[in-house]
């Protein structure tokens, strides 16, 4: 029987905790969280609350409980080097070392690696540490995207047309980014449809999982500010309705080559999740970024579909034997809808902005699955924080059934909350299909 440490406290980790505790090996789960997630707590033998930068506390908790291996959910502890720290105590992890986590934590590292190893998928780009040359390079680009180097919680990237309009503004924004970040990546803007391909990697073998599309914008119709993700869906065929089979294969191939490049570049195997954020364009699949972990919400789409024992997968990742394991997912559709405080993602002066700290009631979610994210469990009930509160997931044979199940589930959460009704609807999917058709015709 294994003792497994889970680091993280979001809905993604609630889904991971569920996958771990479903294992036929009957593992015991020990969870280190920065805030008490009632879903994770209910599945855990023991929990500890602490900071993700307190590596001594995490390693201490692991040793105390004779942990066999760890699964690290979020990017912050990876960036802090929790995997390196645990390794010093002889504990292996599903999750990359600090150096390998640069795949996510440094967008310049990843762009330069793609470039150096002649992997396809990069935009035209340049990394600047000072303003010299920025203006000239901007004038060579038709559409512009600016990315600060480093973790920004999904809120640092600036896209022309969304966040700014003119080249002159881009120049000013670069100067502003360079005040806080060591460097800024200036890159070509792509037109297309985005998708998430979360791959499992043992350092050599890369295994794809069902593709997922996330919805970053706060409001229906992809309107409003960007968020951590309002929800996501996946299809029974494990592809997405606007993609061609070659798109999926290209995303996988880029990731395989990246795993090989990481091994060559650093000398150490990347063990964990390589989550490629891709965009299908008229010229094929392009890479937007990598994350060094499962997506949140995307983990909730794929982990419940796993037919293979997740603990066994983790053991094969750690042992470097993923090639020996057949990893299977159910052929079902999934729709995840995030229930968020009404004021989530809105500017502080917005009338709805103060909805956090309110109490919510969780009723019967029916056939849906419920994954807790940022809620505060007090003696007199459940309270909202300022972040996403609960992920509700519908799983069924068709997308529409899955959507209906999720929708029913969402209605069981009472309080000053909001969600996106359009996720998983045929109207929205058709919009994406038409968008790709138009682009491919051009
Ligand atoms: N080169 C690009 N072309 C078009 N859109 C982009 C490009 N790079 C990023 N974006 C947009 O910005 C979003 C955030 O960028 P991403 O690189 O994923 O960073 P992060 O998730 O860290 O904010 C993407 O989901 C995409 O919508
Ligand atoms: Mg992203």
Describe this structure in words.
The chain is an alpha+beta fold. The chain folds into three domains: 3-94, Rossmann fold, CATH 3.40.50; 124-188, ATP-grasp fold, A domain (Dna Ligase, domain 1); 190-442, 2-Layer Sandwich (D-amino Acid Aminotransferase, Chain A, domain 1), CATH 3.30.470. The protein contains 14 helices and 25 strands. The chain has helices spanning 11-21, 38-43, 55-64, 75-80, 82-88, 102-105, 107-116, 134-138, 167-180, 245-266, 298-302, 310-319, 399-411, 426-441, and strands at residues 3-7, 28-33, 46-49, 69-72, 92-94, 125-128, 144-148, 158-159, 184-188, 193-201, 206-208, 213-214, 217-219, 223-226, 231-234, 272-281, 284-291, 333-341, 359-362, 369-372, 375-378, 381-384, 390-396, 413-414, 417-418. Strands 12, 15, 18, 20, 23 and 25 form a six-stranded antiparallel β-sheet that branches. A five-stranded parallel β-sheet has the order 3-2-1-4-5, with helices on both faces. The N and C termini lie far apart (57 Å). Bound molecules: adenosine-5'-diphosphate and magnesium ion.
How many DSSP helices? Answer: 14
User: Can you summarize the main beta sheet?
Assistant: 6 strands, antiparallel
- Gyration radius, rounded: 21 Å
Please tally the β strands and state the result.
Answer: 25
Which runs of at least 5 residues are low in confidence (pLDDT < 50)?
none
Bound molecules: adenosine-5'-diphosphate, magnesium ion
CATH fold topology of the largest domain:
D-amino Acid Aminotransferase, Chain A, domain 1
How does the overall form come out from the CA principal axes? globular
